[in-house]
C-alpha cells in the first residue's frame, strides 16, 4: 500500500525520503503536482494507474505518502491517519516546533521510526507514539539534549536544581508494554492526571415575527425559533502515572444521552455500553479519551440567552444578551457577534451598553465583549441603512461565538475518577486529579 514517504519544506525542497522499494517513483516525479495542487481541493493526487499520493501541509513541512493503486481495497483514510500519526511521532521525538532542520539532523532516528511504522508489505504497523518510544531510543535527539544540558549545568551551578527535577528518563528500549498506547516501566516522582471536558455548540435560529401588535401582550415580541442545535464534545486526558494503573471515570445522568461516541483504543467499550463509564489503562502523556455528539438541551444556545427584535418604527434592530445563572459559571470570557448585511448597507449603532462595536465595511459589523458576568445585560441598538438611498433594512444574519470555563452546554459532569488497579504503583500513592470544563461555540447563527 504505502510505497514511499516524502517530507519537504515550505519551498517544496526534499528534507527526508523513505522508500519501500527502489523502483518506487522519486520525489521529483510528484513535486510539481503537490506544489501546484489547490488548497481548496482534497489533498490527494492520482499520479498514474499504478500510484497516487496523499499529502498534508503543516506549518513548516509537507508530508506526502505515495501509495500503490493496485493493492487490495483499503480504507481511503489510512494514508491521512498515518500522516498525522507520523507528525505526532516527529513532535514526540524531536520537539516542537517541528522544523526541516530538526528532521535533517535526526534522519537516522526518523528512518528507524519509519521502519517500525510500516511493515514489509507497506501497511501501517506500529503507529502509536508511546509504543514507538519503547522500540526506538532517542539516540540523536537525546544525546544532543543531554550534552547541551550538562554544559549549561557546568557553567551555571544554579541550574542544577532545575536539571535534577526533570522527569525521569524514558524506559529502556525494546521493553514493549502490554498496552500499545503506553510505555513500559513508566516512573514518575509526582503522579498526576488532568481531565478537560471540552464542548462546542452549533445552532441556527429563525426570527419569528410578533403575532400581535398589542404592546401589552407578550406576543408582540419577536422570538427565535430553533432550526437546529447540536453539541460536539471531547474528553482530553493528561496522564503522568507510574506503572500501568487502571482507572474508571463515571459521569452524571447526561452521559446516557451521548450519541455517536468514538473512543481511544484504551477504553473498554463493553463497560461503556453497559454502565456509561470509561474504564481504561491511560496512555502516557496527552490523549483524547472520547469524542461525542448530542442534541443541545431544549435546542438552547448554551449559557447565553439571545433576544433579537427586528427593526421597529425607529428603523433600528435591537439585540439583548443575558448570561444564564449556571453552577460553575462566573463569567463568559469572550463574546463576538458578527452582523452581516448586504454590501451596499451600512450599520450605524445608536446605543451600545457594553463592549465595543466596530463597522468593518462591506456590510459587516462586529460587537465584542469580554469578561461578561451574569449580572450584566448587554444591549445593542443599530440601524441598517443603504448608503445610497438611505433606505432601512435588516441584517442578513448574525453569527455569535463565545468562550467560557466552569461548565459545558450539555451539563455533563464527571462524578468520580477512581483507580481500579494499582499495577506498578505503590498503594500509598494518591495521584493529584484536576478537572476543567471548557465551552467554545463553533457557530450560533440567527436569521432575521
UniProtKB/TrEMBL annotation:
CDD domains: AP-3_Mu3_Cterm. It holds the Pfam family Adap_comp_sub. GO terms for cellular component: clathrin adaptor complex; endomembrane system. It is found in: Endomembrane system. Its main location: membrane. Keywords: Membrane, Protein transport, Transport. Residues 190-447 form the MHD domain. Belongs to the adaptor complexes medium subunit family. This is MHD domain-containing protein. It comes from Diutina rugosa.
Amino acid at each position: 500500500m504505502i510505497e514511499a514517504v516524502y517530507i519537504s519544506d515550505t519551498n517544496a525542497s526534499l528534507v527526508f525520503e523513505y522508500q519501500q522499494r527502489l523502483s518506487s517513483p522519486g520525489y521529483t516525479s510528484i513535486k510539481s503536482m503537490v506544489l501546484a495542487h489547490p488548497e481548496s481541493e482534497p489533498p490527494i493526487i492520482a499520479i498514474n494507474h499504478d500510484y497516487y499520493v496523499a499529502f498534508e501541509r503543516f506549518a513548516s513541512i509537507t508530508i506526502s505518502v505515495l501509495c500503490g493503486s493496485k493493492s487490495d481495497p483499503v480504507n481511503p483514510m489510512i494514508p491521512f491517519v498515518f500522516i498525522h500519526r507520523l507528525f505526532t511521532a516527529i513532535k514526540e521525538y524531536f520537539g516542537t516546533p517541528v522544523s526541516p532542520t530538526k528532521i535533517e539532523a535526526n534522519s537516522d532516528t526518523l528512518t528507524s521510526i519509519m521502519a517500525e511504522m510500516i511493515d514489509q508489505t507497506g501497511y501501517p504497523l506500529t503507529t502509536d507514539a508511546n509504543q514507538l518510544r519503547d522500540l526506538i531510543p532517542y539516540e540523536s535527539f537525546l544525546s544532543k539534549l543531554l550534552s547541551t544540558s550538562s554544559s549549561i549545568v557546568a557553567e551555571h551551578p544554579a541550574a542544577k536544581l532545575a536539571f535534577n527535577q526533570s522527569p525521569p528518563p524514558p524506559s529502556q528500549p525494546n521493553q514493549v508494554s502490554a498496552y500499545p498506547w503506553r510505555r513500559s516501566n513508566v516512573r514518575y516522582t509526582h503522579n498526576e492526571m488532568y481531565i478537560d471536558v471540552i464542548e462546542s455548540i452549533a445552532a441556527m435560529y429563525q426570527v419569528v415575527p410578533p403575532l400581535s401588535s398589542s404592546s401589552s401582550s407578550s406576543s408582540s415580541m419577536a422570538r427565535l425559533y430553533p432550526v437546529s442545535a447540536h453539541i460536539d464534545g471531547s474528553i482530553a486526558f493528561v496522564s503522568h502515572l507510574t506503572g500501568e494503573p487502571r482507572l474508571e471515570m463515571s459521569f452524571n445522568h447526561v452521559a446516557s444521552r451521548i450519541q455517536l461516541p468514538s473512543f481511544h483504543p484504551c477504553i473498554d467499550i463493553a463497560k461503556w455500553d453497559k454502565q456509561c463509564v470509561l474504564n481504561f489503562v491511560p496512555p502516557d502523556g496527552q490523549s483524547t479519551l472520547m469524542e461525542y455528539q448530542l442534541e443541545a438541551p431544549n435546542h438552547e444556545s448554551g449559557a447565553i440567552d439571545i433576544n433579537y427584535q427586528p427593526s421597529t418604527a425607529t428603523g433600528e434592530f435591537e439585540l439583548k444578551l443575558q448570561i444564564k445563572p449556571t453552577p460553575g459559571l462566573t463569567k463568559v470570557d469572550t463574546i463576538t457577534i458578527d452582523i452581516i448585511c448586504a454590501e451596499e448597507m451600512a450599520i450605524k449603532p445608536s446605543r451600545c451598553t457594553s463592549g465595543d462595536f466596530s463597522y468593518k465595511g462591506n456590510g459587516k459589523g462586529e460587537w465584542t465583549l469580554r469578561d461578561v458576568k451574569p449580572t450584566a445585560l448587554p444591549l445593542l441598538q443599530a440601524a441598517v441603512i443603504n448608503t445610497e438611498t438611505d433606505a432601512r433594512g435588516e441584517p442578513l444574519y448574525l453569527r455569535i461565538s463565545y468562550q467560557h470555563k466552569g461548565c459545558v452546554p450539555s451539563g455533563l459532569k464527571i462524578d468520580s475518577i477512581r483507580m481500579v488497579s494499582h499495577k506498578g504503583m505503590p498503594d500509598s500513592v494518591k495521584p493529584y486529579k484536576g478537572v476543567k470544563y471548557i465551552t467554545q461555540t463553533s457557530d450560533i447563527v440567527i436569521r432575521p
